[in-house]
Amino acid sequence: MIASKILNFKSRIKQRIDNYINYNSDEIGFGLIYKFLVNHFCITPASYEDYMIDNISKKRVIIVWAYYILMWFINIRFLLLAIINKPWIWTLFADPIYILRKPNLISLGVAISGLLAVFIQSLFVVFEKYPEFKPIIQMYSSNRKQYGLRNRFYFKFCLKSKFMAKYFLGPFFKLAVFSITIIYVGLIVKAYIDSDFKFPIITSILSTILLFIWLDHCFAVVWVGVVMFYIATLHLKYNFRQIKNEMKQILRSGKSIPVINEIHEHTHYSELTLEFNKIFKYVLAMVYFLITPLHNIAVYMSVSETNTLFRSLYLIGLTIMSTILFIVNYMSSSLSSSAHDFTSDLYTFLVSKRIPVQHKLKISSFIEKLCGPVIGYYCYYLFPFTNYEFYEYVSFVFSNYILLNDLIF
Predict the structure, then answer these.
(1) What counts of helices (H) and strands (E) characterise the chain?
(2) Are the CB atoms for 223 and 33 separated by under 8 Å?
(3) How many CB atoms neighbour CB 88 within 10 A?
(4) Exposed, middle or buried by CB within 10 Å (0-12, 13-18, 19+), for 232?
(5) pTM of the model
(6) Half-sphere exposure in the Cβ direction for 175 (13 Å, CA)
(7) According to the per-residue pLDDT averaged within each range, which of 221-225, 319-323, 359-363 is highest?
(8) Exposure letters 120-149 (e unless 16+ CB within 10 A, then b)
(9) At 383, phi and psi to the nearest 5?
(10) Suppose 204 and one of 199, 254, 299, 370 were both cysteines; which one would form an S-S bond, judging by CB atoms 3.0 to 4.6 Å apart?
(11) Are 89 and 83 in contact (CB under 8 A)?
(12) Tell me: the pLDDT tens digits for 164-194?
């Protein structure tokens, strides 16, 4: 009785997976991601088809570059506010942030986050010109056979990727932009009511409009960058885990030819990881050296702020940054651990089974490869992201907060 219920349950789950695989045309949300990139002018091609044939309109190029220049202008504006921090420059730019505690720190934090968005936007513009990345983009826009995943790994990959594309770029993005907009409008109203500085009306309106455009675009660039990083890393991680599971089953059987096939598949995804690292090593370096001090500033402002409303706002910003940092660091470290997770099993197989010398040499060479440089993402050319680096990063954040706290007080 119980066994039949379990079999029926498994068959229903299998049927749902098959239905999902067979009838879901946009399995990982690639269409949603590309539409988001196009609508927010993060890239110059107007569609995926235009990207594949290098058909780019001059109008879109002008608009993308206009956004790019605006991002630099607003970032320089916030840097000037943070460095000079005098009443005349706050009045000149009609910025209400000065009514907050430590306005120079907040301006510096906004400028740092803007620099990260500018950098990611630069990567979009630069790497869309590289023809070697077209096969990778084509892989994610094609059918499921291109992903290399099977059964439950494929289903989990599609489910998580579609969730990120649908909700992280949809309701979560709109809620974040709307919340920051309401906060900024509230600061403007409070500045006009409480302040001794009289902002010129025209300057204030123009500054507010430009800031809203800048805010929407910066959030869009960072948001979609995080989603693309998550999906690409999740794809590699699940492929390595799938190889690990299949490898363990093969090693129990004692056959060496299937082991060699799995080694070839592992080599393929190691090379794909290397291709992704050509892009992500720059992003991770920027996250490591820019977002870390920004996170420290947010922690300090959340702890030191006496106003309950402003403290709540800082905590919201701190939560968003912490979530992004956790996703980036966790996915990077878990990728490297997944790629190296079956070294001991291979070594046991090598010394305990009688296999052909040619296969023994290939397996031995593969073990040496797994014991060599880390297969995963790197922070530029400095160090790889591993579980130990993740631990060091967390301790680094807290130690920096203590140093920042001592410096300010």
Answers:
(1) 16, 2
(2) no
(3) 9
(4) buried
(5) 0.81
(6) 9
(7) 221-225
(8) bbebbbeebeeeeeeeeeeebbeebeebbb
(9) -160, 155
(10) 199
(11) no
(12) 888 888 888 888 788 777 777 777 777 677 6
* Residue 40 host element (H or E): none
What is residue 344's predicted lDDT score, i.e. its pLDDT? 75
Contact 67, 217 (CB under 8 A): yes
The token pair at 208 is: 């507010």
Determine the pLDDT at residue 24: 47
The one-letter code for the residue type at 178 is: F
Specify the length of the chain in residues. Answer: 409
In sign, the C-alpha dihedral spanning 117, 122, 123, 125 is positive
Residue at token pair 């005349």: 88
Q: Which residues contact 15 (CB under 8 A, 6 or more apart)?
A: none
Helix axes 343-352, 357-370, angle to 10 degrees: 160
Q: Determine the residue type at 111.
A: A
Provide the phi-psi class of 351: left if phi over 0, else alpha when psi is between -120 and 50, else beta: alpha
Q: What is the rounded distance in angstroms from the CA atom of residue 105 to the CA atom of residue 297? A: 7
Q: What is the pLDDT of residues 336-380, one digit of tens each?
A: 888 887 777 777 777 777 777 777 788 778 777 877 788 888 888
For residue 409 the two structure tokens come to 């007080």
Rounded-to-integer distance, Cα 315 and Cα 313, Å: 5
